[in-house]
Amino acid sequence: MLSRRALIIYLPAVTLAASPTVNALAADKTVTIGLSLSLTGADAQSAQKVRDGALMAIEEANAKGGMGGYKIEPMVLDDGTATAGQYDPAQAATNARKMVADTKVVAAIGPQMSGSGKAMAPILSQGNLATVTPMSTNPDITDPKFAQQYRPKGKPVYFRTVTTDAFQGPNMANFYADTLKAKSVYVLDDSGAFGVGIANSFQAQAEKRGLKILGRDQINPKETDYATILTKIKSLNADSLYYGGVAQAGVKLAKQAADILPNVAKGAGDGLASADFLKGAGFPAAEGWYITIAAPHMLEEAPVKDWIERYQKKYGSSPEDYSITAYDAALVILDAIKRVAESGKEVNRDNVRDAIQQTKLNTLQGEVAFDDNGDIKNRVVSVFKVTKDAAHPLDDLSHQFKYVGVAPQSSS
Predict the structure, then answer these.
(1) pLDDT digits over 330-355, tens only?
(2) What is the DSSP-derived secondary structure letter of residue 5?
(3) Which of 221, 274, 248 is nearest to 48 (CA)?
(4) Residue 158 three-state SS
(5) C-beta atoms surrounding 218 within 10 Å
(6) 10 Å Cβ neighbour count for 297?
(7) C-alpha to C-alpha distance for 59 and 54, rounded to whole angstroms
(8) Which residues contact 10 (CB under 8 A, 6 or more apart)?
(9) How is 180-247 classified by DSSP, letter by letter?
């Protein structure tokens, strides 16, 4: 992995270069990129960092004169609601309809959460509006088996700059078997589309690897007390716990598991890879959790040092790995707009969608290219261990998440 990353020597800014003609035209011609993220509720802090990464790419493109003669205007929408306390699929569907109804919106970025993605995808398909998600990982949305449900118009419109839980869940099961040497595991999920999906894929691979599945339960994100299920897990002498879900339930789970299951290895998918989890659970409750992201870990790599410095100067905080995948998602769309404009075709959502499908672009995380279903071809899953670093803010992922390595990929 390090040798591959070392080859990334061209900054994405190269692709944003504009001619004097572009500078003259950009003031008169505009297109819109929508962003739908969970800016209200349990994942709001992570959403802000994802938003900032995407907006940074758009602002840099506009500062260079736009893309192919077009100024880019962002449309930022919130799919979180106070009632849900996190992402709300109904609001996500409303956002999708709003973007589809605006003909100036030629592509979108988001959502964060797969529950939102499942609500949005059919609407986006009907409007032939492509979105590039920097976080959503449920594999069903892009699986051709579910094409009639999630892409009824036929063409893929749901693209990703992260891999899916078809790899994130199983690869973490391999990590449990190979690195943690776990013999038994209890699996929990939060009933959401992401949580159920990743827990299913983790459990299936864990069984293949010979781990004894001691049980499987759902925890309700709206409930406050998980002591009953945690006490049951303790009575079974489980040596590991795996949680599929996001921060709303994950924060409470971590706090209570620290007291009831102090010596049990604990892990989760990228639903807990957020400042919201660190801030909500706090230390010592978050200490020792193994958490994955569905992308390469780039924040410690030399090629992104300048980008990190620009991000910190602009926003006054450190980025997360999904700030990078959000920046890359914007780069993909910006590059598609540029290629369509330079080809002489109309810059509309149909042509931009087709250009996104054909993407082959050097980005912060390396080359981004998509398969026929819109999934990124890079399938790296990175593992971190939450390890307190008192010298830095306790909700700063770049210092509180210690990079362990790449999770072992399954051969089947």
Answers:
(1) 999 999 999 999 999 999 999 999 99
(2) H
(3) 274
(4) strand
(5) 17
(6) 22
(7) 9
(8) 362
(9) S--SEEEEEE-SSHHHHHHHHHHHHHHHHTT-EEEEEEE--TT----HHHHHHHHHTT-SEEEEES-H
Q: What is the pLDDT of residues 146-176, one digit of tens each?
A: 999 999 999 999 999 999 999 999 999 999 9
Nearest to 375 by CA among 102, 175, 151: 151
Whole-angstrom distance, CA of residue 211 vs CA of residue 186:
10
Instruction: Give SS3 for 367.
Output: strand
Collapsing DSSP to helix, strand or coil, 325 comes out as: helix
The DSSP secondary structure of 274-316, one letter per residue, reads SHHHHHHH-TTTTTT-EEEESS---TTSGGGHHHHHHHHHHHS
Q: How sure is the predictor about 101, in pLDDT bands with cuts at 50, 70 and 90?
A: very high
Give one word for 26, left, alpha or beta, with left for phi > 0 and alpha for psi -120 to 50.
alpha
Where are the strands (E) in 245-311, listed by range? 265-268, 290-293
Task: Evaluate whether 106 touches 380 at the Cβ level (below 8 Å).
Answer: no
Tokens of 144: 């051709």
Integer Cα distance of 71 and 94 in angstroms: 26
For residue 95, give the H/E element and its range.
Answer: helix 89-101
Distance CA 397, CA 260 (A): 25
Cα(148)–Cα(346) distance, integer angstroms: 28
For residues 375 and 160, the answer to whether their CB atoms sit within 8 Å is yes
**How far apart (Å, rounded) are the C-alpha atoms in residues 53 and 85?**
24
